[in-house]
Amino acid sequence: MSREAPPIRRPAVMEPYVPYSRQNIDEDDIRAVVKVLRSDWLTTGPLVEEFERAVAAATGATHAVAVANGTAALHAAMFGLGIAPGDEVIVPAITFAATANCVIYQGGTPVFADVHPTTLLLDPTSVERLVSPRTKAIISVDYAGQPCDYDALRQLASEHGSSLVADACHALGARYKGTPVGSLAELSTFSFHPVKPITTAEGGMVTTHSDALAQRMRHFRNHGITTDHRQREVEGSWFYEMTDLGFNYRLSDLQCALGLSQLGRLDGWMHRRQALARRYDAAFAETPEITPLIKQPEVDHAYHLYVVKLTADGPAKLRQEVFTRLRAAGVGVNVHYIPVHLHPYYQRTLGTRPGLCPNAEAAYEQILSLPLFPAMTDTHVDDIVGILTDTVGAVSSQRG
Ligand SMILES: *Cc1c(COP(=O)(O)O)cnc(C)c1O
What backbone phi and psi angles, to 5 degrees, belong to 66? Predict the structure, then answer.
C-alpha cells in the first residue's frame, strides 16, 4: 500500500443516510389500516381473500394463498409438494438463506447449484448436472427482481419429473416474455417485507394454478385444520379436524389492508425503479471497473436490487474498502448475498465447502448493492455514481 486514499466528500443530499431500500407509506395506506382497526376483523377477515384475489389477478395465477412472511410462503410451498426426508431440492447458491432453509424445515436436503456469472440467476446447466432420482423440486430465484430462465428450468423440471418453485420474493410485478412472474412456475412465493416491492410490514404469498396445492397450503397456514373460524361461523358448527401438522402462518386483515393499498402503486414504483436503474447503467457504461449485472432482453425487470460487480484489478480487499467508505459517506450499500452453502450451519450440517459453486463464490467477492427505491431522486443516483466512481478510483490506485 503506497498511500492513504483521500477521504470522500459527502454531498449534502446524502444527509443523513440513503439506505439501499426503503418502504413507501402514504396517507391512503394509513387510512386503510386505521379503517380495519375500527372494524370487526383484525386478523382473518374479508380483506385476506380480497388481497389474495388482487395478487392472483396481478400475477395471472389462479390462486394466491396469503401467509405470515416470505419464509412461511417457501415453507408452505415445500409442504404443498410433500417434500420429506430423502428428497433433494436444488437451490441457487446466491439467495437469501430462507430459500434453502425451507427444504430443511420439511426434512429434505437442499442441493446448491451455481449461478450465471453475469446475472447471478440459477444456471440451468448447473442444475442439469445436479438432478438425481431424488430431486423432487427445483427452487429458482428471480434474483434482484429479474425473472430467471423459466423456459429452460421448466423444461428441466418436467424432463425429470420434478416441480419448479419460483422464489419470486424480489420480483412482484416482473415479467418473462410478457407473462407475469407468479404464473410461470408450479408454485411462486412472494415476500412483503418493507424492503420488497410492496409491503405489509411482514407478509408473504404463494401463487399457483393448482386447486389441490392451494387447498393444502391454506390448511397448512392454519395448523393443518380443515376449516377456518369464519367458515365455521357461517356453517354454524363447532366441528373441525386437524388432518395435517400445520403452523400458525396467517396474515392479518390489518396487513392485507396495507398490502391492497400498496398493490395499487406497484406499477408506478416498478417504472421508477427501472428508470433509476437505466440512469445507473448509463453512468457505469463509461467506467470499466464497475460492471452492472446484465438484464436479459426478454424480461421486464422489477429491480428490487441494483447490483454492480467491482471488477477493478485492485487490492484483494477492494470491495471491503469501497463498502466501508461508501457507508461512511452516507450511502447504504449492501451485499446480496453471502453464498448460502458457505454459512457455518450448512458447512456443519451438510458438509458444504468453498469450491462447490465457483461462479457464486467469485461473484460474492465483487458484488455491491447500491441504493434503489422509488422515492430516490435522479440527483441521488448521480451523487452515488460520483462517490462510487471516485472511491473505486482512489482505492484501486492504492495498490503498491
Ligand atoms: C426476503 C426474501 C425471503 C424471505 O422473506 P421474508 O418475508 O423476510 O420471510 C426469501 N427469499 C428471498 C429471495 C428473499 O429476498
Answer: -80, 135
pLDDT digits 0-9 by tens, 6-31:
555 556 556 668 999 999 999 999 99
Q: pLDDT digits over 301-357, tens only?
A: 999 999 999 987 766 688 999 999 999 999 999 999 999 999 999 999 999 999 999
CB of 167 shorter than 6 A to ligand 1: yes
Give the burial class of 91: count Cβ atoms within 10 A of its Cβ; 0-12 exposed, 13-18 middle, 19 or more buried.
buried
Q: For the chain, what is the radius of gyration of the CA atoms?
A: 22
CA of 395 from ligand 1 middle (Å) equals 33
- Residue 358 C-beta-side C-alpha neighbours within 13 Å: 1
* Helix (H), strand (E) at residue 207: strand 204-208
In short, whether 69's Cβ falls inside 6 Å of ligand 1 is: yes
Q: Could you tell me the three cell numbers for 175? A: 415479467
Exactly one of 136, 196, 295, 309 is catalytic; which is it? 196
Ligand 1 atom at shortest distance from the alpha carbon of 203? 7
State whether the beta carbon of 175 lies less than 6 angstroms from ligand 1: no
Integer CA distances (angstroms), 363 to 118, 170, 359, in order: 9, 19, 6
What's the 72 CA to ligand 1 centre distance in angstroms?
A: 9
Distance of alpha carbon 356 from the chain centroid: 23
Q: Is 141 in the pocket of ligand 1 (CB under 6 A)?
A: yes
- From 172, 188, 193, give the residue whose CB has the most ligand 1 atoms within 8 Å, as the site to mutate: 193
- What is the distance between the alpha carbons of residues 72 and 199, in angstroms, rounded to a whole number? 15
Predicted TM-score (pTM) above 0.90: yes
